[in-house]
Design goal:
Length: 308
């Protein structure tokens, strides 16, 4: 006949939790580490006034000319574009737009490296530029310098999927906070992995504690028995003490009920069961014997000097 065996449900749940939890934690960690980091492009606009229209009032015959054209006011703008966060992208289109149509008298561009490039084309209200690649090099920004008669600074826009552009001052403010210091994907991956690992370990510890409780009688170990006399009649109020050796555990003492029955622990049967049981009663000969099963049936002999 084939042998049969069984595994406690709590053990199965613990094993599955360890397997699934460990796999889940590893999968989440791999996804967080390998996922593409959102690209952030920062910009700063610095304005320098080259010609002030009020100066012509203060200084007679003062003029500023570009070629033969007299200019009443002239402003220089330096726009720096940086990529402090995100993966490398092939190229991006950048728009530098003034509030209205402007006259641009001159412009220059500077890439952070000879392997990088930036090109700009003039439009009615500013410039459209293309940078390649979208990445940081030598901790230097892409730089655009232009001269115009517009005194109101431009705003900057970007056309690139999964990217956003923010003022450099705003980005630095965000990164200086507590959340900013941990909001990088790598840090979030590490933090998420730790939190998931802690949660899995806590769940496993809880289940293992339950299994351990089952093994020592707290969560399901049981010793049941019926104590009868030589005639098979139940013996009530007999003191019952059980001390297990494997697994090691001492049950609180109990007494038999009016049917001679007792129950110690909760409803679960142990395998590899081994221990001792001691039964004492004022009118019966004590019994102290080995047990190898939680189901105990013992007969007590009445003491010779007792009546009935």
């Amino acid at each position: 006949m084939a042998k049969t065996w069984s595994v406690a449900p709590a053990v199965v749940v613990t094993a599955l939790t360890a397997f699934v939890g460990g796999g889940l934690a590893g999968s989440v960690f791999s996804w967080l580490v390998n996922r593409r980091e959102p690209t952030v492009i920062t910009y700063s606009v610095n304005q320098t006034q080259l010609a002030d229209p009020t100066a012509t009032v203060l200084i007679p015959n003062l003029t500023v000319n570009v070629g033969k054209e007299t200019i009443r006011e002239l402003h220089a703008y330096t726009i720096d574009l940086d990529v402090p966060q995100g993966g490398r992208s092939e190229r991006a289109r950048i728009g530098i737009f003034f509030p209205q149509n402007v006259r641009i008298y001159g412009k220059s561009t500077e890439a952070p490296s000879q392997l990088y490039s930036i090109t700009c084309n003039q439009i009615d209200n500013g410039l459209t530029c293309e940078i390649f690649p979208v990445s940081r090099a030598n901790n230097k920004p892409y730089r655009i310098i232009l001269a115009t008669d517009e005194k109101n600074p431009p705003h900057v826009e970007i056309a690139l999927a999964d990217a956003r552009i923010v003022p450099a001052s705003e980005y630095l403010t965000q990164k200086s906070g507590i959340w900013g210091s941990i909001s990088t994907p790598k840090t979030l991956a590490e933090l998420s992995f730790v939190l998931i690992a802690i949660a899995v370990l806590m769940l496993q510890a809880r289940l293992l504690t339950r299994v351990a409780g089952l093994a020592i009688g707290k969560g399901g170990g049981i010793v049941v028995g019926k104590i009868v006399n030589a005639d098979g009649n139940p013996i009530p109020d007999a003191d019952v003490e059980v001390a297990l050796e494997s697994p090691a555990y001492n049950f609180p003492p109990t007494k038999t009920d009016r049917f001679g029955d007792f129950i110690l622990g909760s409803l679960r049967k142990f395998s590899l069961y081994k221990g001792r049981i001691r039964i004492t009663h004022a009118n019966y000969v004590p019994v102290d014997t080995q047990i190898d099963s939680p189901i105990v049936s013992l007969k007590l002999d009445r003491k010779a000097d007792t009546n009935n």
